[in-house]
Amino acid sequence: MCTNAQAVDAGRLFRYRDERGVMHIGTNLPPGQAQAGYEVLDSRSLKRLNVIPPAPSAEQLARQAVERRTAAVAEAANSRAEQARQRDIAERRNRDRMLLETYADETDLAHLRDMKLESLDLILRTADNTIGHLRRNLAQMDATAQEHIAAGRQPPDSLVQARARTAADLAGQEQAAERTRAEQLAVRARFEADLDRYRRLTGTLKTAGS
How many domains does the chain have? Predict the structure, then answer.
């Protein structure tokens, strides 16, 4: 009675269910009950003061750990996406500033585009001329080699080596020409995008029907 009186004087009672589901109210918790969860009641009014939930099981702890890791991964991904978005915004603003500072009007932009395209066109014409020359040389070497073979002779090493060098030069020139053509397309696309953006920034973009 002394112990119960002390517990009541302290103002607390414990309400819990045992392993069979039977409800109990008492001044003390039996061993292991704290892990199973309980309620704290006011000893006079029996009003619930606090609820102590059961301790999570090993399975629940593992699931919570997975959920925390998943949430951390998602948060990191969202953070990276936001950083990328902010970089894109900053880069866009910088490009916009450069457009407005570099070109006084659309004609300046078009003039620079035409200059770059003319320069690339000159490079391409030179490459095409070289390619034609190398192809003719290669055809002549092949004809000479065939003459040797028709006469029952092996083509001389000097001819074979010269043909190999010419074929390598031709392949290099053809690759360079393809790169130049690709650069021409890229320049056109880039300047088309720059012109469109410039018009939007300066309010001169013409819409359909305007």
Answer: 3
- State which residues form the domain around 141: 104-202
In this prediction, the residues of the chain whose per-residue pLDDT falls under 50 are 1-9, 207-210
78 & 45 share domain: no
- Which tens digit of pLDDT belongs to each residue from 2-56? 444 344 446 789 999 888 889 999 888 888 888 888 999 998 888 999 999 988 8
Q: Is residue 66 part of a domain?
A: yes
- Give the Cα separation of 114 and 116 in Å (integer): 5
What is the rounded CA–CA span in Å between residue 180 and residue 117? 10
Q: Which amino acid is at 204?
A: T
pTM: 0.56
Residues 8 and 30 in one domain: yes
183-190: list long-range contacts, CB under 8 Å, 24+ apart. 183/120, 184/117, 184/120, 184/121, 184/124, 187/113, 187/116, 187/117, 187/120, 188/113, 188/117
Concatenated DSSP letters of 47-111: -EEEEEPPPPPHHHHHHHHHHHHHHHHHHHHHHHHHHHHHHHHHHHHHHHHHHHHH-SSHHHHHH
